[in-house]
């Protein structure tokens, strides 16, 4: 059994730690914290859980990401794109080049709408479990904030896109996506015995 981490970055950062299971992930820890505390807290959790892979927002603090990657080879930066490709994500690396002042970069390009579609499907299939803790209500609020709406893609084709609400309280939703994608970058497998609360069709289902 191994653990992964997802981080949504802003003035207030949102963080999740999850165990990797045979079919998906089991989120065992969630928290909110000021961005000034992120580096220290992430390292604490990395040591505590033995984190094997992490995925973090590349913006708006790109310099923070680069600094943290220097201390964590298994930390990836997330970049969103909108593409008609079937790929959910693509891993990219850039070699260090001292002459050009270029650092070694590890990034994952996420196909935004397809990623959130796939995340929803895995939530409905109960492949993603979330332990109830002090942040539970906030997690539920954020994971039900965005709406999947049908619209024109600009080329005359109808498609579905994920839209933020006016409140834009979707941080834990993004964190959950990052955590799930981070699990795809490892060869981990295992199982968790303890049952957890989970989202079923984006509605809260209490444990039996």
pLDDT < 50 stretches:
188-208
| Helix fraction bin | 25-40%
- Taking Cα atoms only, what radius of gyration do you get, to the nearest Å? 17 Å
The strands making up the biggest β-sheet line up spatially as 6-7-5-4-1-2-3-8
Roughly what fraction of the amino acids lie in strands?
35-45%
Assign an overall shape. Answer: globular
Please identify the structural class as seen in this structure.
alpha/beta
Tell how many strands the DSSP assignment holds: 12
Please explain how this structure is put together.
The chain has 208 residues and is α/β, with parallel strands linked by helices. 27% of the residues lie in helices and 35% in strands. The strands form 3 sheets. Strands 6-7-5-4-1-2-3-8 form an 8-stranded mixed β-sheet, with helices on both faces. It has a two-stranded antiparallel sheet with strand order 9-10. 31% of the residues are buried.
List strands and helices in order, with pairings.
Layout lengths: L2 E6 L3 E9 L4 E10 L3 H12 L1 E7 L4 H10 L3 E7 L7 E6 L10 E7 H13 L3 E3 L5 H8 L3 E6 L5 E6 L7 H14 L13 E3 L2 E3 L3
Parallel strand pairs: 1-4, 3-8, 4-5, 5-7
Antiparallel strand pairs: 1-2, 2-3, 6-7, 9-10, 11-12
Helix pairs in contact: 4-5
